[in-house]
Amino acid sequence: MKSGKINILIGGPAGAGIEKSGKLLTLSFVRGGYRVFANVEHMSQIRGGNNFLRIRVDEKFQQCHEENTDILIALDKQTIAEHMGEMNEGGAIIYDGEEMKPEKNVLMVNVPLKSLAISELGNPVMANVIGLGVLFGLIDYDISGLKEVLGKVFGNKSVEVRAANEKAAQMGFDIAKEKWADKFEIKIKKGAGKNEMFLMGNDAVSLGALKAGVKFVGEYPMTPSSSILHFMAQWSEKYGVVVKHVEDEIAAANSIIGAGFAGVRALAATSGGGFALMTEAVGLASMNEVPIVIVNVMRPGPATGLPTRTAAGDLRQVIHSGQDDPVKIVLCPGDIFECFEMGFEAFNLAEKYQLPVIITYDKNLGEGYFTVPAFDDSKMVVDRGSLLTQEELEKMPEYKRYLRAANGVSPRSIPGMKGGTHRATSDEHNEFGEICETAENRKLMVEKRMKKLEAALNDMPKPLLIGEKNAEITLVTWNSSKLACLETMEILGKDKINILQIRCAYPFHKKEVSEILKKAKRLVAVEQNYTAQMAGLVAENTGILIEEKILRYDGRPMTAQNIIDGLKL
Amino acid sequence: MPANLKDLETKDRPNWCPGCGDFGIQMALKQAIVNLGLEKENVVISTGIGCGSKVNQWIETYGFAGLHGRSIPVAMGIALANPELTVIDVGGDGDGYGIGMGHFINTMRRNLNITYIVQNNQTYGLTLGQTSPTSEKGMVGPSTPKGVIEEPVNPIRLALSSECTFVARGFSGDVPHLTKLIEAAIKHKGFALIDTFQPCVTFNKMNTYDFFRKRVYKLEDEAGYDVRDINEAFKRAGEWGDKIPIGIFYQVERPTYEDSELGLRKGNPVKADISKIDVNEVMQGWM
Q1: Do B264 and A218 touch (CB under 8 A)?
Q2: Engineering a disulfide at B121: which of A110, A121, A464, B198 sits with its beta carbon 3.0 to 4.6 angstroms away?
């Protein structure tokens, strides 16, 4: 008998209740002590099509999915056809329809969910909950977990509705136990809940920002970043955060610059197309030395591309955003913990170096769900850099907003402070902020801004060598491809595989990355774009060419299997 | 300490063309700040790009000179980050009625507490005299050598139909009148637009000081003109020819955006203590 882990897939047309069912399922497992990784694959439409949710249930912490399935809940016929290929031998398909004979050894659990929901519960909507009950019956997972979660998810519904849902779950459970459970091998035992969080990468970034004291959010909705806007709107009143859904991304970027100039920590989140509209403002924040944070959650492009799928192809756009050479910092989190840490740290970096900080990661990380213990935020310290106090300002005989300090960082006054009036000017300006076009001033001010990057580099998350130094193969990666690399290392072993994760794309840790690469035996770039953008950046900065590449650019997340196949061992 | 005119002086002097309408606007703006007894550190002037947008270079308050067409979103961010500030936005007709039109309309309907002065010279001065969204039909410029063939934007009518709560027009050739308008606009709770005729002595040979002096009349001098009557305001906004009205077209009190914004209930964001924010409640929600 197999136990302790199972891969589940719920598929069907948009609007069929995949998300709700998924929430009930995953929470039931999380509360039973399991670590769940879940990831939605949906089409960019509100109704119809074929969407699915992959749920990987394991006692161990998992951060990416496998491409095979033990139990498929098919909410329509198409789902069975599309996913039959990935069904494991001995797996089961729960569906409601005509009898089918599968071409391989798969248990066809055909239950008249809809007619039962109508005849027994008087409501066809309950069909999905009966289906979940069937699943729990098959694996013999204590149904009380699901009932508890029903209470949470439908907490605001009437007592009758909750009772009907519980009855539906029990009914499915009993049917499965009686008719199919002994024909299905995998059993999952409900344990004690570990009180862990179940959240998306976007949630973690948002939480980091909230912890950092974000007070203004200017945003225009764009998949797959909108959940950050929704999060902030939900907590706006409680935490005193002004959240403005503005008319476009240009307004979003410029409004956070206004808020940053006025002295609050300000955030905008978007995806590639929206970021394209923000690029002029990235230059503005750089020139006027205004701290802002922009989150760019990547999806496949160009243009509309695949709006609801994943990619990591905006690296070049992000690091090169803005005409000429605007100083900026680009952070690339690769897991849920880094999402939280960088969501917080970005604001410190922005204020310490008075420039725009861009956090960029792929949809697979942003909208992927992870099960983790509560984050430890006890060591997080808000650092506002050279922001002056009124007292400090009054002691200055003469205030220069753009003073050419040794590290390029000038003391900053904000509106309302006496003695600190100045103009922040997008034209080239002198130390006072006055427009100045002399060649000498221009040269000095360009150098002043650039110096900040040298200083910032020491403060930014360093490249990470994961695994053993002497491994045969070094996978060079960034963003959520890291998670598939980790699984590859787990499967092939640490003698074989180690991982170089690049966590900052701009400025670039040339020395640190070079040192790691020079010691590596076989280098392979693992990325989710066609041109291996990070490998290009590595070459540009270190002179080291990574010839071998494993690239996925079909809009689906990288898996360990992709990497293992690509390595041709 | 309330500012006097000398406090508002900068080291540099304006570099506009002699006779430029921007001088009158700058003078009126400074005078209004003084007359209202504002403290210079509590005033922020946000500008876009254009000759007139340099106005904040030469007024000693806080100032932000941003991108072409984007002064309004910047002003919005400032106003919402620190609602205690007096936020004044100054930009040209290209800035507000051309490239920044989307921000202009959307910000009016929000009724943020911002005063927006548009230096409307009906031409693009800084880029050497192309026609602007408010250029009259037939006006010749380097981008329209045979004359403009489209209708001009009517900013007053746009504002009236965009739920703007204070809609006025000034003339930089009448500084005392413009000063009073700016004072009224700053005192107004909500978004205040002052579209201001600002003759460009170098590039606009049609809409000169003389052109306006012959035509403008003041709405407040009109017997029975009621600033609460939006239909009358709309009618007057259509007048162009021998008689062109200036003054307050329309003014109404409505709750400001700041009044209703949930994120401001805890107080002024810029004064919040952000050193020890407890996010446990949020994490609990994910368990």
Answers
A1: no
A2: B198
